[in-house]
Model the fold of this input.
Amino acid sequence: MKSNDKNIGLIVVLTMLMMTMVITSSTILFLKFNGKEKLMYTLDSLGIIKNMKQKKYLREEIEQFPYLTVFHKEEKNVFSGLDHEEKILYYKIKKYSYLNGGEIKAVIDLMKELNFRYDYFICAQSNRSYDSLISTEYMYSVIYDKYKSLIDMYLKGSSSDYKEMYIRGIYFHYLSNIYKDDLQRILIEYNMEPYDVKEYFRRNNTFSSQFYLDFVENIDMYKDIYRYYLKTII
Done:
C-alpha cells in the first residue's frame, strides 16, 4: 500500500513539473510571436488582472520572464539558493553590468543585510574607466571591525570573485554612510586610498574625476535595479 502511495505521489510531482514546463514554453512562444502587450490584454480579458497594482506587477514579471528561463551551466549553483524575486534581480544586474555569477550573488546577499544605493554601487563597479587604485585588502582592514559578523558569515567558503565583490560592496556602503549624497567624494574614495585622494585634491582643487563623469553619464541605466530592489523590501 505504501509503495502505491509513493508511486501516486511521484506521478503527481512529475505531472506538475510537466505542466510547469508546458506553461513556461507556451508563455515564451506567446511573448515571441505576440509581444507582452498582447499577453497583458489576454490576461486582462480572462479576468486574471484585478487592479492597476496587480497589472503593474504582472507587467514587471512578464518583461523579465524570458530571462528567468535561461540557465547557464556555470550558474546552476548560484541559482540554487535564490527565490523568485532574487532571480529577477539577478538577471536585471546581469543585463546591465559586466558582473559574473559569483559577483552578482554577492550583491544579492548584500541586499539581504544592508540598505543602500545598489544602482550607484553596480554602476561604479561596471564603469569601463574603473581602474581601482585601492586594494581589497585595504578595504577589508577598514571595514572588518564594524562589519565583522557579516563578513565572517558570508565569506566563509565563498569564491574569490564573491569575496572581493562582497568586501567592495560593504566598503561602498561604509563610504555612503560617511559622505551621504556627496557622490564625488564617495566615488573618488572608492577608487583611491586616502593619501592619493588628498594629493588629487591638492593638484586639482576638486574631487571630481573622469570616473565620476562616466558614472553620471551611465547611472540611469542601473536605476531599474534599485527600483526593483526597493520593491522587494517593502
